[in-house]
Amino acid sequence: MMLLSVLAEKLNAELNGDAACGVSAVASLEKAGPGQLSFLSNSKFRSYLADTQASAVLIKATDLPFVAPGVNSLVVADPYVAFAKAAQLFDTTPDTAKQGIAPSAVIDASANIAADAHIGANAVISANAKIAAGVQIGAGCFIGEGAEIAENTRLWANVTVYHGVKIGARCVIQSGAVIGADGFGFANERGRWLKIPQTGSVRIGDDCEIGANICIDRGAIDDTVIGNNVILDNLSQIAHNVVIGDHTAIAGATTIAGSTTIGRYCIIGGAAAINGHISICDGVHISGMAMVMKSISEKGVYTSGLPATTNAEWRKTTAKLRQIDQLYQRVKLLEKQLAAADGSADSASED
After folding, report:
1. Residue 39 in contact with residue 61, Cβ under 8 Å?
2. Annotated catalytic residue, options 118, 240, 247, 285
3. Is 247 an annotated catalytic residue?
4. What is the pTM of this model?
5. Which of 12, 117, 126, 242 has the most CB atoms around its CB within 10 Å?
């Protein structure tokens, strides 16, 4: 339980209401009850303020008049950011740091493991791996030879980190992630595929979140690089030699082909497909399901694909799309005819 007076100080918020009121959890406006904190970041949902049972709400100053009587308010510049910080204060995620090294863990004698690191049951730490202070390795994880994990990074269960991979400080790697598997490198010799050894690695910066069941391939020669504070959602594929700039966020099931560079502060929607060997500049927003086939050099919002509609409408649209080439040829013919007619008119006027 945290008093609102203390919470307001931690969030740099202006408190309107009972400073001695306590909250111990966060919840949505619709479902929050006594002892819980909620927030309003979008004025479209302002009507919920009148009915919420929350003990306190995080709001902008412009929403203060709409708060129901008896509900305490914490006025902040950005309620969503403040809610994120408050949620961290009330986080109920289990802390395994006090468990030490599980007896069933298999650790090579040459591995360098900080005294306060936690190694879960059945985890494997290979030769010359480096596990820094405060690192938590979940049950069933595999850490390859020479891999390095920096301070206070947490790996949930069954994460695989291949040889030579370097992961920065304060990262969270969700279960099932595979970091440093071979990239898709093959040469074709008269119909037979020959594997190209992937001799690069993966470097992940500080404060990153790597989603569940994600695959980040190691580089073919140079490293695959994930910058600082990058957020990668579940089930995404990051191919070999991709470079992702700081503070970029990529939603689930996105596929990025090899040797593509993505800038800083980009936001990529779910299930986007990004071609290989292209560059995307800083500050680009790509809508979900978009297919990016060529480089983007100007920041802005980019969208492709058809939104869902009824099957009947989709069939009509598809039938029309098949006629685009015919329409194009007709337009070209008309343009030629118009140009010829204009030429004849000009000649007649000169005569």
Report:
1. no
2. 240
3. no
4. 0.90
5. 242
